[in-house]
Amino acid sequence: MLRYLPFLVEFALLVFCLIDCIQTDSFRVRNLPRPLWVLLIVLLPLIGPIAWLVAGRPPRDTATSRVPWPSTGTAEVALPQDVCDQVYAEDGYEASVSNLAQVSLNSDTVFGDDGGAGQLATVSGDVASGYAVSLAVGIDTTTTPTGGGVSGGGAPGGPPPGNP
User: Fold this and answer.
1) What is the pLDDT of residues 36-72, one digit of tens each?
2) I need a surface site. Which of 21, 104, 137, 163 has the fewest CB within 10 A?
3) DSSP one-letter string for 124-155
């Protein structure tokens, strides 16, 4: 019976890696497209699964999977007034200029509770070349989840917008 053990281990590894690869979101797969990983796992029974575990499988991010959702208290990003003024000065935003003039971070229903202090982003760039927006977000690890949740350990359920 022990002589079959290596074959059973190899088969179990193949099945595990094949299922793992198929269930992994395609945008998280590393180094090769997912269909090619499936072929490697099936056609190279020992080498393919080991290669998948080492080079193809996305790393499991245990830190984010333990944090309750939402964990930040930040669901919106506020942009500095001068950046908004630059963008709204461009053609096509004429109707938005009057709306912007009527709202401030203190009076806005989204940012009004703290004047946008927790959501005010740092912005670099310009209208011609585009903007880069960054936001430092604190994580509340003391919050106890009260229901709901996100499948996949908090990972998004599909490819990022604009990427096939």
Assistant:
1) 999 999 999 889 999 999 999 988 754 444 444 444 4
2) 163
3) EEETTTEEEEE------TTPPP-S---GGGG-
Residues 104 and 96: their CA atoms lie apart, in Å, by 14
pLDDT in tens, 102-157: 877 777 766 666 667 777 888 999 888 888 888 877 666 676 666 555 555 555 55
Contact 57, 20 (CB under 8 A): yes
Enter the pTM of the model.
Answer: 0.40
